[in-house]
Specification:
heterodimer, A: 816 residues, alpha/beta, seven-stranded mixed sheet, six-stranded mixed beta barrel, 27 helices, 30% helix, globular, B: 282 residues, alpha+beta, four-stranded mixed sheet, two-stranded antiparallel sheet
Chain lengths: 816, 282
């Protein structure tokens, strides 16, 4: 009878009970480390990470949007184990938006690309073989050198999606010294504000001083979820509600669905998509008709309010006569669905409460213009609580470089995105023309594409054009940290280090106008064989040689970053975000009293950046960078670009929709064809981009899923369609059932959410899900509405017009 | 055989002794459990029940100002990152099994277009009369001397009685093993235990941060200050809508705000005495 038999005799009797009771009881009193060795359920299961050591909080920069919020990363034994906002950063002041908190999850993400990859199978097959950086750069630079030697540097196309201000500078430099004019920006317009109208009517950048406004009316601009930065917008909202208890202001939000801003506003006004401009002009009509406008401001600081005569004696229409003649409340009410009394009430409120702020998103150009005009009408420009004319804060500049003959020839060629002064007069880039240009080899063949954190195969109208276009280009290189659907079509994938592994530098202004440079060092060493984008371009340039290499003399990106800030350093203004750490300060004292660029840069990156808190103490003067030097209701900038023979109406805010014009028989400039499948009357599809999926990123991070749409249900990972309950009843739809949303070019699956926050003739869907790659938590989750949006571009800005699609709903399993 | 008989007797004595020991331990545990049901946990080590400056024990509470909150969700993600929260996936989300200690509860009422909608940050209310504590058969959940309702993972047997009893449904059961593909565990917060299949978890008011704040004060040779203890959600909020502090201190901000005319508590009529106070809009 031995120990083994002792344990093997499991009998269900009193002896057995005592035996096993004793064993378990004793086991529970053993130390934890012994318990872990015992088989479960006798042993313990609780696990605790085993890090020991002193913690330090290392500053970094979020980088998810242009605001560059400052973060402090908790580091223990070289591991990033926590994150919070940097209290000294003027933009976020210690807080962060949901995206900022996921930087640690991004760093330790299991789906990160760990080495450079070369395509093994067909494009898009997903078969890769790992290669070294040397091999990758050799192959790429070899092909690029070949392109140059053939005298065709312009056949290189560089597409950038997300890029910091500093990175943009480096990439621009590379394109320029290489000799290609084809540097195209793919950043989505959602949440970026009425920047095109600002360019056309003021010629300036601007900030909108939310915190001190007396009345805020937003037209389709979900400003609580907008950039930059949503943290600042939220803080401003908080101050507006509880910071000024003596005067609680009203916030009105007008949008085709009740977004987060709609929920938090005092009044949400439903409206049909792309009718916001008409509403703004209807409000302008009332303000002008009743003489409620700011006569002083209009007389002294604006042009084009009254009809005007040009040097040839021709009379041109002004804003006043335009709104009085064409935008009476009755007509506007019929078109927008907003009651006449509401239009009159809003107009009176907007004119009475000063300063009143009217905001729009980067929507259709003339709609932006109409909303911007409202601000001028009541004199909300150049005053606290209104539109402030702060210039863009751009502290980065690098020394001049040479463009050799080959480069100069290339740069003289036209861009492939058809961006020129006549075609898309206000566009910086017309990304959506690129795939068509590639497929048509027009104006010339594209031989190589470099994508930098760009994913056009995900959110673009008529996605297939991009797939076909990329398939047809001989060399496709994608610089990215995660295998997204666009990178699947690359020949070579160059893995980028993530935010916490890289040197960061970007610049912004707070809404109050305070300039901020966010700059930081890597928090942890790169986990894998990755490089930051700046380092890639430096190495690539060096490998290409000649004048291209000469333009990139630095050893690594931090050197380039330091040199680019020499101008800011030399100006002597401002201060680091906080006191540089002790060791650095000591050696500061040891050396000369005047710090060197080196020391200054060290101090800046040790604290997370630089700012000049006094710079925004005064409101900028009312100097507009327009041809007239004034705010232009009638945009002379546009007139210069489109040509004087274009009609007056092209330079004024107006509504072109055939429905509004009552000219349905005439040539339709905006085509909106109803779909053939599905049931019931056609509905307007309204698309929006939740904060957590900004620029099409974020779905790969599990902590961000379930946050979008929190106003509808809890933690769901899905794409939904918001349908007004009455409409849902008409169509016989129950909550949570799956349906097809059918457009003229395709259909997409969505989950029904009966929502009172959407008008009867509208269905609203979020963009951001429906990935076909991009990691295990993104792939196959939700569906992608951009697949069913036809390509229609705004002819002034070149931006895709997302809200023109009419759809029908079809039950799943039913006929389509 | 003589030795065999002797061994048998010895074996019997050993087993009897161990059995008695186990019974004694069990009785002790039962006694403590009964004590905990009164709401007084005597299970805290001495140094964790310090007295505040005016001789009173701290009572930690939270105030959430819904007028300032914009429903951005920063608190949700900050809590998840701080507390090594399970990741989740689409299927689990469909089943309602993705655990988030802090989440936004939507509340919409009214007829189109006159709609009133709210986003309510929802978390454990750390009740003074916690329904979850009353029903736990093994004292895996208890209320400590400072009012925090705690969860002891190794003690939990996964019966889910507490999950059922909580009227706020903020206790969460791990139906499956939370998966953390490598190298995600490298980024775990070392101060917080990682949960596993079969146990219940919930918001702890970032109790680990309280412990750290106390240890820091001791290390720096000073007294612990209530403002040193800041849960992750409080720190994260861009609207500064979440306040946290000592409800036993009449001068504290949470005490002051708790008496605001806008203050209300959820399901107050059930008598749970929650220590999360909401301030309504307007």
């Amino acid at each position: 009878m031995g120990a083994r038999d002792f344990f093997n005799e499991i009998k269900v009797n009193r002896r057995g009970f005592f035996k096993w009771g004793a064993i378990s009881g004793t086991a529970a009193t053993l130390p934890l480390w012994i318990q872990k060795l015992l088989p479960s359920p006798i042993g313990q299961r609780e696990t605790r990470p085993q890090l020991q050591g002193e913690e330090s909080f290392v500053p970094s920069v979020c980088g998810c949007c242009d605001a560059g919020c400052g973060v402090l990363v908790r580091v223990i034994q070289g591991h990033a184990v926590g994150i919070k906002g940097n209290p000294n950063h003027p933009v976020n002041q210690g807080a962060l938006c949901p995206k900022g908190f996921t930087l640690v999850q991004e760093l330790y993400h299991p789906d990160r690309i760990k080495t450079p990859l070369k395509r093994k199978g067909e494009r898009g097959s997903g078969e890769w073989k790992p290669i070294s950086w040397d091999e990758a750069l050799k192959e790429i630079s070899g092909k690029l050198k070949e392109i140059r030697s053939q005298g065709e540097p312009h056949s290189l196309l560089i597409l950038t999606g997300s890029a910091s201000k500093f990175e943009k500078l480096l990439i621009r430099r590379f394109a320029s010294t290489f000799g290609t004019p084809n540097l195209v920006d793919l950043e989505l317009g959602f949440g970026t504000g009425m920047v095109d109208a600002a360019l056309a009517m003021m010629g300036n950048h601007f900030t909108f001083d939310l915190e001190d406004a007396a009345f805020i009316i937003s037209f389709g601009f979900d400003w609580l979820q907008s950039f930059p930065s949503p943290v600042e917008a939220t803080r401003a909202y908080s101050l507006l509600r509880r910071g000024k208890l003596d005067r609680r202001i009203r916030i009105v939000h007008i949008e085709p669905h009740m977004s987060v801003t709609g929920i938090k506003a005092d009044e949400w006004i439903p409206i049909k998509p792309y009718t916001e401009g008409a509403l703004a002009l209807g409000i302008a009509h009332v303000i002008v008709a009743e003489g409620l406008y700011d006569t002083d401001f209009i007389a002294n600081y604006t042009f084009g309010f009254e009809d005007w005569k040009d040097s040839n004696g021709n009379i041109h229409r002004g804003f006043k006569s335009l709104v009085l003649e064409d935008y009476e409340p009755e007509r506007v009410s019929k078109f927008t669905g907003v009651k006449e009394e509401t239009i009159k009430r809003l107009a009176n409120e907007f004119a009475e409460k000063k300063p009143a702020l009217a905001l729009a998103d980067r929507t259709r150009f003339y709609d932006q213009m109409a909303v911007m005009a409202l601000n001028a009408l009541v004199g909300s420009i150049g005053v606290r609580g209104g539109i402030l004319l702060f210039d863009e804060f751009s502290p980065f500049s690098l020394p001049p470089f040479t463009q050799d003959e080959v480069a100069q020839k290339g740069l003289s060629k036209p861009r492939i995105d058809k961006r020129d002064r006549k075609l898309f007069p206000l566009a910086d880039s017309v990304a959506e023309e690129v795939p068509d240009a590639i497929l048509q080899n027009s104006p010339y063949k594209v031989k190589a594409v470099i994508l930098h954190r760009a994913n056009p195969v995900f959110i673009s109208p008529e996605l297939d054009r991009w797939v076909e276009a990329l398939r047809s280009v001989p060399l496709v290189v994608s610089m990215t940290s995660f295998m997204d659907e666009t990178s699947m079509f690359a020949d070579i994938v160059l893995p980028l280090s993530v935010t916490l592994e890289s040197w960061q530098a970007t610049s912004t202004r707070t809404l109050k106008g305070v300039p901020v440079l966010s700059a930081s060092r890597p928090v942890v060493a790169p986990l894998y064989d990755t490089l930051s984008a700046g380092d890639v371009f430096i190495k690539l340039a060096k490998a290409i040689g000649g004048s291209v290499a000469d333009a990139f003399p630095w050893q690594d990106v931090s050197e380039a970053m330091k040199e680019s800030l020499n101008g800011l350093f030399a100006s002597g203004v401002g201060e680091p975000l906080s006191q540089p750490p002790e060791e650095e300060e000591e050696s500061w004292i040891e050396e000369e009293i005047k710090p060197t660029l080196d020391k200054w840069f060290k101090g800046i990156t040790a604290t997370g950046g630089w700012t000049d808190r006094k710079a925004a103490e005064k409101v900028p003067p009312l100097k507009f960078k327009t041809p007239s030097g004034k705010f232009e209701f009638y945009s002379l900038t546009l007139r210069q670009r489109l040509g004087e023979d274009a009609p007056d109406i092209a330079f004024l805010p107006h509504v072109e929709d055939p429905e509004f014009l009552g000219e349905l028989g005439k040539e339709v400039r905006l085509s909106v064809t109803p779909p053939s499948g599905g049931e019931g009357k056609p509905l307007h599809l309204y698309l929006f981009l939740p904060l957590v999926f900004k620029n099409g990123e974020g779905a790969h991070l599990p902590y961000l899923q379930g946050i979008a749409g929190s106003y509808l249900s809890e933690h769901k990972w899905e794409t939904w369609v918001e349908i007004n309950p009455e409409t849902a009843d008409e169509l016989g739809l129950k909550d949570d059932e799956f349906v097809w949303i059918v457009s003229p070019i395709g259909r997409v699956k969505a989950r029904v959410k009966r929502y009172v926050g959407v008008p009867k003739e509208v269905v609203a869907m979020p963009l951001g899900l429906g990935h076909t790659a991009y990691g295990r938590w993104a792939q196959g989750v939700g569906s992608n509405p951009s697949e069913i949006v036809p390509k229609v571009l705004d002819k002034i800005t070149g931006q895709p017009l997302w809200q023109l699609t009419l759809v029908r709903v079809a039950k799943k399993g039913g006929e389509v | 055989m003589e030795s065999k008989g002797g061994f048998n007797i010895l074996r019997r004595k050993v087993v009897a002794f161990l059995g008695a020991l186990t019974t004694a331990v069990g009785a002790f545990v039962l006694k403590r459990k009964l004590a905990a049901q009164d709401g007084e946990g005597k299970s805290q080590p001495a140094e964790q029940t310090q007295e505040s400056q005016n001789g009173r024990v701290h009572k930690w509470g939270m105030v959430i100002d819904l007028d300032k909150c914009t429903g951005c969700g920063a608190c949700v993600v900050a809590c998840a990152v701080e507390n090594n929260m399970m990741l989740g996936d689409a299927q689990l989300a469909e089943q309602g099994r993705v655990i988030r200690w802090m989440y936004l509860l939507p509340m919409t009422e009214g007829e189109y277009p006159n709609i009133k909608s709210r986003l309510l940050p929802m978390l454990c209310q750390h009740c003074d009369r916690p329904p979850c504590v009353f029903v736990c058969p093994v004292t895996a959940t208890y209320k400590d001397s400072e009012g925090l309702v705690a969860q002891v993972y190794p003690r939990c047997i996964g019966c889910r009685y507490c999950v059922n009893n909580c009227p706020y449904t903020i206790k969460y059961f791990n139906w499956g093993e939370p998966e953390f593909p490598q190298p995600i565990p490298k980024g775990f917060n070392p101060d917080v235990a990682v949960r596993y299949k079969g146990i219940v978890e919930k918001c702890t008011f970032c109790h680990h941060r309280l412990q750290i704040a106390r240890e820091k004060a001791k290390a720096e040779g000073r007294e612990f200050r209530p403002e040193d203890y800041v849960p992750a959600c409080v720190e994260a909020c861009p609207a500064k809508a979440i306040y946290f502090g000592d409800l036993n201190d009449p001068e504290s901000e949470v005490s002051r705000l708790a008496h605001s005319r806008r203050a209300f508590k959820l399901l107050e009529e059930l008598g749970t005495q929650p220590k999360v106070i909401y301030l309504s809009e307007g």
